[in-house]
UniProtKB/TrEMBL annotation:
<keyword id="KW-0808">Transferase</keyword>
<dbReference type="Pfam" id="PF13489">
    <property type="entry name" value="Methyltransf_23"/>
</dbReference>
<protein>
    <submittedName>
        <fullName>Histamine N-methyltransferase</fullName>
    </submittedName>
</protein>
<keyword id="KW-0489">Methyltransferase</keyword>
<dbReference type="GO" id="GO:0008170">
    <property type="term" value="F:N-methyltransferase activity"/>
</dbReference>
<dbReference type="InterPro" id="IPR016673">
    <property type="entry name" value="HHMT-like"/>
</dbReference>
<dbReference type="GO" id="GO:0032259">
    <property type="term" value="P:methylation"/>
</dbReference>
<comment type="subunit">
    <text>Monomer.</text>
</comment>
<keyword id="KW-0949">S-adenosyl-L-methionine</keyword>
<dbReference type="InterPro" id="IPR029063">
    <property type="entry name" value="SAM-dependent_MTases_sf"/>
</dbReference>
Length: 298
């Protein structure tokens, strides 16, 4: 790293704890579900070319909750189609949770799950050696390009796996969001140089435009309550700061000038808004970070 920090991904228990807190404090999953139920079905209706078996792939699928939502929408649009679903996920814990979810979910007899405990780069090598000619109908990469070395090469590889009418869905933090502004401003101090940690949709858009690759862009509006970040020593606030900066124990390890800079930016109106909630004589000020994700469909 450019700064003497340890990346949050190196401490999986702490990462998981801060990730779960992020989901609790944000509208991340709700905005994704809105997209999956209201926008994605029309996209899925255009794939498949009349084939009786669809090849689907999730890259960085986590515990599978979002994957199964998308597979359900695919089934509604193509009720008589079988699905071969490749799951790519490097975490044992997440893969186990995904398998448990599949084992208890109804109406999945039409889906064959292939489990790949691999990173995206490991899977790329595996695919090229084992089944280089197989083509995919739908590939989704949701909030995972932060953890690859070369996001442009990763996008290019998985795009090369698509059928002519196939679709690649990428969801990332928007560079125009509060989170994106945080990463852009403090990229040199915070971001791990060994992975593309601070990549945003702006970076991917520049790549696609340069290569002349057509895409459709969708905005997924969400917010995250970061109120406790401004209370020194607050355990919730420290975990939220860890997740925002991707640094283990950021509030303890960051120099005072960097810590002040990050907190000042997070509180700036360009990144967040303060909402005053009044109950009788008690006034609470909540600070909400704009966490605008964007979906790109290639």
């Amino acid at each position: 790293m450019a700064a003497p920090f340890r990346s949050l991904v190196e401490d999986y228990p702490r990462y998981l704890k801060s990730f779960e807190l992020f989901l609790e404090r944000s509208s991340e999953h709700q905005c994704m579900q809105d997209f999956i139920h209201n926008t994605l079905p029309d996209i899925l209706a255009s794939i498949g070319g009349g084939r009786s078996v669809f090849n689907v792939m999730g890259v960085g699928s986590g515990a599978g909750e979002i994957d199964l939502e998308m597979l359900a929408q695919l089934h509604l649009k193509h009720p008589h189609v079988k699905v071969d679903n490749e799951v790519v996920e490097p975490s044992n814990d997440m893969l186990y949770k995904y398998k448990v979810r599949v084992s208890t979910a109804p109406d999945l007899d039409h889906i064959n799950f292939e489990w790949n405990k691999m990173t995206a780069s490991e899977f790329e090598k595996h695919w090229q050696q084992k089944i280089p000619g197989k083509k995919m109908d739908f590939i989704h990469m949701i909030q995972m390009l932060y953890y690859v070395t070369d996001p442009e090469a990763t996008v290019s590889f998985f795009r090369s796996l698509l059928h002519k009418d196939g679709k690649l869905l990428i969801i990332l933090v928007s560079g125009e969001s509060g989170w994106g502004k945080l990463w852009t401003t403090f990229k040199k101090q915070l971001c791990n140089t060994e992975i593309s940690q601070c990549v945003t949709t702006g970076d991917i858009k520049t790549f696609l435009d340069t290569e002349g690759i057509p895409y459709r862009n969708y905005e997924l509006l969400s917010q995250m309550d970061i109120t406790e970040c401004f209370t020194e020593g607050d355990q919730v606030g420290e975990l939220l700061l860890d997740f925002l900066t991707e640094v283990i124990e950021f509030s303890k390890n960051a120099p005072e000038d960097l810590k002040k800079g990050v907190l000042d930016l997070l509180r700036h109106p360009d990144c967040s808004k303060e909402v005053v909630i009044q109950w009788s004589q008690l006034i609470q000020i909540n600070c909400a970070l704009s966490h605008l994700s964007r979906a790109r469909v290639l």
